[in-house]
Every structure is written in structure tokens, then in C-alpha cells.
Specification:
The chain is globular, with a radius of gyration of 17 Å. The chain has 256 residues and is an alpha/beta fold. 47% of the residues are buried. It starts with a strand and ends with a helix. It contains eleven helices and eight strands. InterPro entries: AB_hydrolase_1 (IPR000073), AB_hydrolase_fold (IPR029058), AB_hydrolase_sf (IPR050266), PcaD/CatD (IPR026968). One of its GO terms (molecular function) is 3-oxoadipate enol-lactonase activity. This is 3-oxoadipate enol-lactonase. One of its GO terms (biological process) is beta-ketoadipate pathway.
Length: 256
């Protein structure tokens, strides 16, 4: 299905599981679409209402001209949940999806009862890093940064395996304008102070070989929220739900 935002942007949404089940909403990483969760969902308990969406500029969602603001990405998630009548959900955000998760919990605690911050942080990278990446993809396309991104995304074992080519091809197919727009949203985001004010059950997940958001950075963000849990998936990188979906499902299922 598609949900239309106030600015006319259409956001692609998918649902699995019973409509009356407890809602779990998934927000994917920069440079991926909702297929990020394909291997994970069948491993989760069958009584949950599992909701995925492609953020603007990615997947089957529209690609408006950038740059995008983090507030806009948060508002997109908010509008999707309001459209579906979802409240009190567990919100699972990976990478930029985890930043969206933090922003949504800060803004609308009625929508988010529990938080899963996967391979993310309250602040990621530096403005110079994101400016360089925006310039590269706008000038030369996604291919220009693909190999470097794959090295940061995946652990050594996965990079040596047969599935890397699939995820590299999917990354290269992301519209440069959508990717650059979301890079700008990350560049302008620092949630350290507002996230430290959150008080809700939180699980943080990290991969030992994550070159984008290393475990210490993820743990530092988790520590901002009193009582949070932290789980480490070994021999996995930035997208552990792809590299080790069984272990990811075990950790997430226990939290659910």
C-alpha cells in the first residue's frame, strides 16, 4: 500500500501478521529498502503485526528533491502509523532508522511503547563526512561509493560469500537524490540531549564488525536511556539482520 504525506510524497508500506496483533514497526537503514527485513520476519513469533515501510527516496517510495530534514523523516513514520491506527508499538530502527526511532519516541510517546535501536547512534559521523558522500553520489552516482559502503556494512565472512553481490546491486540501484537527501538528514541530527530524556524500555543491538556505527557508539547511545539493554552480535557488521537473522530474531524475539 501507499500512504501519502502532507507534501504529496507517497510512502510504500507493507504489513504481515494479524491486524489485531501487537504492532512492531521497522525502519530500514540508509541505502536499503524494506527487503532488509525479509530474512528476519519469518523467524519472529507469528502473533505480531509486522509493519515495514520504505523511507522517502528509497525502495518504492517517491523520491522528492532533497535535502531532507530528520524532522520530515520522523513525520513520515508518524503519518504511516497514524494512517494504520497504530499506537503503543515496538519501533525497530536500524542506522538512520534508529535515528528516526529516537525522534519519533521524543515526539510521540503514544506511538512508541518500546524502542529497538539497532546499529545506530544519537549522532552519526561528521558534517564533512556526509558532505563528501553527498557530493560523490550526486557527481558520480551510487557506484562511486558502493565498495567502500559494502566494507563498512558487512563482516568479513559475509563479504567473502555469495550474497554480497545482491546487496551491492540493491545499493547501487538506490536513487542518488534519495540517498543524498537522507545523508543530509543524518548530517543535521544530534539527538544526545533529547534521547537522554527518554524513559521507555529500550534494546540496543550492535555488530562486532560494524564499520559504520561501532559497538561502543551504539552502547554509548543506549546508556543515555536508563535501564536499556544491550546485545552484541559477533562476526556481524552494520546489517546483522542480514548476516545472522537467526541470532537477530532470538534477541529481538526475547525483547518482544
Amino acid at each position: 500500500m501507499f500512504v501519502t504525506m502532507k507534501d504529496g510524497t507517497r510512502i510504500h508500506v507493507a504489513e504481515d501478521g494479524p491486524r489485531d496483533g501487537r504492532a512492531v514497526v521497522f525502519a530500514n537503514s540508509l541505502g536499503t529498502d524494506m527487503r532488509l527485513w525479509d530474512a528476519l520476519l519469518p523467524l519472529l513469533p507469528g502473533d505480531f503485526r509486522l509493519i515495514r515501510y520504505d523511507k522517502r527516496g528509497h525502495g518504492k517510495s517517491d523520491v522528492p528533491n532533497g535535502p531532507y530534514a530528520m524532522g520530515t523523516l520522523v513525520a513520515d513514520a508518524e503519518a504511516v502509523m497514524d494512517h494504520l491506527g497504530v499506537k503503543g508499538a515496538t519501533f525497530v530502527g536500524l542506522s538512520i532508522g534508529g535515528m528516526i526511532a529516537q525522534g519519533l519516541a521524543i515526539k510521540r510517546l503514544d506511538l512508541v511503547a518500546r524502542l529497538v535501536l539497532s546499529n545506530t547512534a544519537a549522532k552519526i559521523g561528521t558534517p564533512a563526512l556526509w558532505d563528501d558522500r553527498i557530493a560523490a553520489v550526486r557527481a558520480h552516482g551510487m557506484e562511486a561509493i558502493a565498495d567502500n559502503v559494502m566494507e563498512r556494512w558487512f563482516g568479513r565472512d559475509f563479504r567473502d560469500g555469495p550474497d554480497l553481490a545482491t546487496w551491492r546491486a540493491r545499493f547501487v540501484a538506490v536513487p542518488p537524490e534519495g540517498y543524498a537527501g537522507c545523508c543530509a538528514a543524518i548530517r543535521g541530527t544530534d539527538f544526545y540531549t533529547p534521547t537522554s530524556g527518554l524513559r521507555l524500555p529500550t534494546l540496543a543491538i550492535a555488530g562486532t564488525e560494524d564499520g559504520a556505527t561501532p559497538p561502543d557508539l551504539v552502547r554509548e547511545t543506549a546508556d543515555l536511556i536508563p535501564g536499556s539493554q544491550f546485545a552484541l552480535i559477533r562476526r556481524a557488521g552494520h546489517l546483522p539482520c542480514i548476516e545472522n537473522p537467526a541470532e537477530y530474531a532470538r534477541i529481538l524475539g526475547g525483547f518482544l
